[in-house]
Fold this sequence. Notes:
Pfam families: OsmC. This is OsmC family protein. The structure is a single chain. This protein has 141 residues and is of the alpha+beta class. The protein folds into two domains: 1-38, N-terminal domain of TfIIb; 40-138, GMP Synthetase, Chain A, domain 3. It has three helices and six strands, in the order βββαββααβ. The chain has helices spanning 40-62, 102-116, 118-125, and strands at 3-9, 12-17, 22-25, 66-78, 86-98, 129-138. The strands form two sheets. Strands 1-2-3 form a three-stranded antiparallel β-sheet, with no helix packed on it. The protein is elongated. The mean pLDDT is 97.
Amino acid sequence: MNVSIKWTDGRQFLAESGSGHSVVMDGNPENGGRNTGPRPMEMMLMGLGGCTSFDVIQILEKARQQVTDCHAELTAERADTVPSVFTKIHVNFVVSGRNLKDAQVKRAVELSAEKYCSASLMLTAGGVEISHSYEVVDIAS
């Protein structure tokens, strides 16, 4: 896996992935940015959310659960000192579908957190406290 980061101007950078996708990252105006894209730490949090959501959906599909939607909300706290690392992150999943089994959703969230999500495991190994919760929304057939 590889990426390249190119400084464009001010505090704006263009990140390009090895798979050919690009995203603009920028700083806030107080620090010389123009607010044209997410901050790098926001990108890390989005990466965690994407990684764990990918796992949850894949696990539920393998369990033959009829998922129609999955939404993850992440909130994070950062240290007050430099470096301002993440100290706590909470991930709440809202999983919708037909006849979803609560135990299956719970297990999918646990497996992602404890075994499969590389981003989550890397952050927890670095001392970040990550907690999870979930809600199951049954969609009428």
